[in-house]
Amino acid sequence: MELTVLALSFIALLVLGVPVAFSIGLASVATIMAAGLPTAVVFQKMVGGMQVFSFLAIPFFVFAGELMLYGGIADRIVRFANSLVGHVRGGLGMSNVIGCTLFGGVAGSPLADVSAMGSVMIPLMKKEGYHADYAVNVTTHAALVGALMPTSHNIIIFTLATTGIASVSVLGLIVACLVPALILTLCNLSAAYYVAVKRGYPTRGAFVGWYQVAVAFAAALPGLLIIAIILGGILSGVFTATESAATAVLWALLVTGLVYRSLSWKNFLKACAKACKTTGVVLLLIGISSAFGYFMALYEVPQKTGELMSTVTQTPWMIFLMVNVLLFLLGTFLDMAATILICTPIFLPICAHYGMDPMQFGVMMLINCALGLNTPPVGTTQFVGCAIGGISVGEVMRSIWPFYGALLIALMLVTYVPAFSLWLPGLVLSK
Questions:
Q1: What pLDDT, on a 0 to 100 scale, did the predictor assign at position 185?
Q2: Quick count: other Cβ atoms within 10 Å of Cβ 232?
Q3: Half-sphere CA count of 207, side-chain side, radius 13 A
């Protein structure tokens, strides 16, 4: 009965439009009352869930991303990407993909990526004769790669969601995401080029030359070095993941404030305010999801879900496909952090039982959640991209399939070819 109350109350609250965090919390309280337990249990689990030292990495990574967003890094990355591939057919679209990927590595947030790169590239592409739906689709899909980059706070959230279920290190998952991020980028480039050729978009003159590429790269390099600092620092043992996040903030302040001198006091305050808001929402979700996860473990939700799925099929590739479909559907209604926190305790044990490595599952989970950011009704990155492009979501959805299909291909490769996720961690971490 308690499990029924938990599931039905959560679904009903979501359908009524109650925010996810409050839906999770109220469903937990309803379950406590149905079980006859003291309501203090909910708050104890919430507080305990947030009192983890590793969570300090989340506000630092979020703050570093906001500083990069408001510090003018995007313009320099755009110039570098344009100098590299701007001369090919549909070059602005491919420049957009490369620029969004690079900025995603700096900011670690798909939403920040769309906001920064979209505000520069979408108007420019429209001015150059590209259709608005193409400009928006290229930007919003390329921005999703940011969820897999070393600066992504969602990587931290996933590793913490696996506590008590599997041993997944932050460094291991960061390294595991690098090859899939490259695959996603190549898929985005292919989709952008395919649509550009199909629509007959023009080229933009001759290649500017490697000297100009080198100059543009040198201008963007201080901002891009944040990726090397995080990876190099953790791999060398100089600092932990939490300390690397704090280092990222210091580097972001140094680059935007002293090197580029593009971070004004007004924008610094905006970055602080946005980082505080985002951190508050994420930590609230983590705390409430800890209580929700307690009830899922208490009433054996993962085991019951696994038993239900095994009655349909016991073939591993079918189980993985079913998990992907469920994650995709849930991702269209839930925010990325909420999906990770709720679904990891349920589906990770199931996939691990059928032979999937926890790190591979983490990459699969992050890609699925990223796809949800670009799918209505939640679709936050798509809403921001459409707002910048001055186009409706319906118009964008009609031409989304080449881009969405490319990312689904990448998801299937990660799901069914473990080497894409596990080869690099095995090579790096075994030393």
A1: 92
A2: 12
A3: 8
